[in-house]
């Protein structure tokens, strides 16, 4: 069973390519968009909501990117529009900012933490040697007083900053650095929250701007090593924040004296950046995009001789991305379907790669 977090000022910056700038998708606003647009009448999130369409909290195959959401909304658009018109008489409009917010909201569900096992957490806590210092008599803060236990990002930061003292203890014990998996950490958290006088509270999750996080990533020297084959882009796909904290903890011995301590606001900025680079859309192929446009019939309405009311692709060049594509398809898709129906053409299917290639072709026309 999934454990949901309260999104406190959660900002996930959606990449907007081709010089159009960044659209800051806010998960908290995205929850409001999900409700206001009536998505929950058909779609569930972790089993809560409608049952007439797929549960949107389920993890897709591969990375969850804006292009994947755009393809899904395109492919299922006709059925969604018909159902909405049948129930409320109209299809609600969607702005690019609302599309970014909606993506951010759904994205956080795809990476919510698994419910930990307290008993297994107790065993891991003892087996990894944590209990020797954190059991109340070892000189370190007892596990039931860990205030960061409800904030996975702050917990990752405290573990990172705690590494110096931990390294000294490990050296004295002549043991190897205790490596953790994300599951191990989730179980330890469940154990800590269940201890007498343990810090329970409401779990919170807060990420800051990916743009400022990228700047900090360079300032802290992370970018010097994490390039090329060592780049972190895409390596956190389908991972939780416990996975991220565990990966940082396991990385400590390799860092040595290069490791720099982090303040709370720095950690939220870094996580915002690290989380954003894993869902940036892959660069499309303009030549393959042209084939998509021809084979799917897009050029018949958006080519050199556009249909009435349809913009030419050249008018969209340089300012179209997968997030704006979501909004455009949603707002104008029904008109496109009607036009295709008049011409006797079926609604074409698109996948994430086709969307990326099509957008690359359109933006190459500027």
Give structural notes.
- By secondary structure, this protein is mainly alpha-helical.
- Among the domains are: 114-277, no CATH class; 286-363.
- Helix content is 52%, strand content 5%.
- The chain is built from 17 helices and eight strands.
- The protein has helices at residues 27-36, 66-88, 96-110, 118-127, 131-134, 152-161, 163-173, 182-194, 210-219, 222-225, 241-255, 264-277, 286-295, 299-302, 313-316, 322-342, 352-363, and strands at residues 2-3, 6-7, 11-14, 23-26, 44-45, 48-49, 113-114, 204-205.
- A two-stranded antiparallel ribbon has the order 1-7.
- The longest helix is centred in the N-terminal third of the chain and has 23 residues, at 66-88.
- The radius of gyration is 24 Å and the shape is elongated.
Essential attributes:
two-stranded antiparallel ribbon, 366 residues, mainly alpha, 17 helices, disordered N terminus, 8 strands, 5% strand, single chain, two-stranded parallel ribbon
Short overview:
The chain has helices spanning 27-36, 66-88, 96-110, 118-127, 131-134, 152-161, 163-173, 182-194, 210-219, 222-225, 241-255, 264-277, 286-295, 299-302, 313-316, 322-342, 352-363; strands at residues 2-3, 6-7, 11-14, 23-26, 44-45, 48-49, 113-114, 204-205. By secondary structure, it is mostly helical.
């Amino acid at each position: 069973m999934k454990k949901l977090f309260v999104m406190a000022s959660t900002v996930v910056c959606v990449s907007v390519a081709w010089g159009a700038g960044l659209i800051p998708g806010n998960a908290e606003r995205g929850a409001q968009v999900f409700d206001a647009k009536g998505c929950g009448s058909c779609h569930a999130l972790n089993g809560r909501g409608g049952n007439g369409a797929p549960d949107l909290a389920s993890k897709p195959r591969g990375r969850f990117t804006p292009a994947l959401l755009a393809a899904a909304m395109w492919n299922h658009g006709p059925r969604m529009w018909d159902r909405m018109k049948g129930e409320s008489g109209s299809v609600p409009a969607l702005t690019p900012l609302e599309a970014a917010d909606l993506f951010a909201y759904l994205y956080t569900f795809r990476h919510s933490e698994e419910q930990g096992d307290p008993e297994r957490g107790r065993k891991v806590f003892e087996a990894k040697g944590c209990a020797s210092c954190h059991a109340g008599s070892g000189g370190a803060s007892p596990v039931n007083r860990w205030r960061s236990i409800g904030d996975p990002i702050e917990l990752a930061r405290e573990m990172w900053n705690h590494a110096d003292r931990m390294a000294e203890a490990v050296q004295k014990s002549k043991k190897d650095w205790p490596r953790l998996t994300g599951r191990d950490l989730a179980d330890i958290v469940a154990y800590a929250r269940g201890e007498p006088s343990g810090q329970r509270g409401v779990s919170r999750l807060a990420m800051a701007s990916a743009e400022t996080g990228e700047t900090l990533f360079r300032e802290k020297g992370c970018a010097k090593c994490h390039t090329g084959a060592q780049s972190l882009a895409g390596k956190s796909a389908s991972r939780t924040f416990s996975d991220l904290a565990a990966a940082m903890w396991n990385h400590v011995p390799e860092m040595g004296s290069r490791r720099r301590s982090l303040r709370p606001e720095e950690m939220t900025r870094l996580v915002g950046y690290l989380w954003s680079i894993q869902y940036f859309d892959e660069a499309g192929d303009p030549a393959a995009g042209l084939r998509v446009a021809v084979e799917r019939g897009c050029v018949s309405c958006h080519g050199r001789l556009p249909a009435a009311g349809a913009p030419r692709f050249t008018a969209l060049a340089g300012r179209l991305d997968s997030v704006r594509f979501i909004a455009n398809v949603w707002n104008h898709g029904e008109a496109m379907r009607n036009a295709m129906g008049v011409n006797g053409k079926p609604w074409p299917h698109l996948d994430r790669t086709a969307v990326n290639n099509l957008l690359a072709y359109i933006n190459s026309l500027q």
